[in-house]
């Protein structure tokens, strides 16, 4: 990277005023690698706390959780930087710990969202996500509340946040397929044949509209009839 004379002068006067893209990303990655064991403990504690609520209500569900790898974090930082978004610190990144809860029905999903709102006393930001590609889920940013943080085994989780994605089973299956074929482009089609890639994206969107959404509604009806 070539640094201009003005930038060189700035670094001499105040080294903190000049931070290139590489140093910005590297600084966050170094901090994350040092703190990742704590984030992994937080993931485990969050998973157990959420699953306790799920079991208490007798839901049919699947729960998955992960702590973001340094490699995936680097990809995210580069992607956001290219989109004009720069995080000021590691604390600003809210999905380093992620959980996904998959329900059989939208009814159970909505019921659980109300439950978690009433039970969790920490940070709780709820957002309904529906994208053009068919992805549909409720995202919740959560942290532990003051009472739990006061406990010795939870003190080191202060200010840590997790992102909980709550969806139904058919939307989850669709999201996994779309993520691999379009978002990650595991076959490299976008570079090999951009026109064909766009056609595939269009066909995937049509498939979601014609079949997946309809199937999700019909499954909901079948399950509700069985319950009644």
From TrEMBL:
Residues 65-189 form the RelA/SpoT domain. SUPFAM superfamilies: Nucleotidyltransferase (SSF81301). GO terms for biological process: guanosine tetraphosphate metabolic process. SMART domains: RelA_SpoT (SM00954). InterPro entries: NT_sf, RelA_SpoT. It comes from the Bacteria. Pfam families: RelA_SpoT (PF04607). This is RelA/SpoT domain-containing protein.
């Amino acid at each position: 990277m070539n640094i201009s004379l003005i930038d060189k002068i700035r670094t001499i006067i105040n080294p903190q005023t000049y931070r290139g893209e590489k140093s910005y990303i590297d600084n966050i990655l170094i901090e994350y690698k040092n703190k990742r064991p704590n984030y992994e403990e937080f993931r485990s504690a969050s998973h157990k706390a959420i699953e306790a609520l799920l079991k208490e209500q007798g839901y049919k569900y699947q729960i998955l959780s992960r702590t973001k790898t340094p490699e995936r974090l680097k990809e995210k930082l580069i992607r956001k930087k290219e989109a004009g978004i720069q995080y000021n610190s590691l604390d600003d990144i809210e999905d380093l710990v992620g959980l996904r809860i998959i329900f059989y029905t939208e009814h159970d999903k909505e019921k659980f969202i109300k439950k978690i709102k009433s039970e969790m006393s920490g940070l709780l930001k709820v957002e309904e996500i529906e994208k053009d590609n068919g992805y549909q889920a409720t995202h919740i940013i959560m942290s532990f509340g003051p009472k739990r943080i006061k406990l010795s085994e939870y003190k080191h989780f202060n200010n840590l946040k997790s992102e909980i994605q709550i969806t139904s089973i058919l939307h989850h299956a669709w999201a996994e397929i779309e993520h691999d074929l379009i978002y990650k482009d595991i076959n490299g089609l976008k570079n090999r044949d951009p026109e064909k890639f766009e056609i595939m994206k269009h066909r995937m969107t049509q498939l979601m509209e014609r079949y997946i959404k309809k199937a999700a509604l019909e499954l909901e009806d079948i399950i509700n009839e069985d319950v009644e």
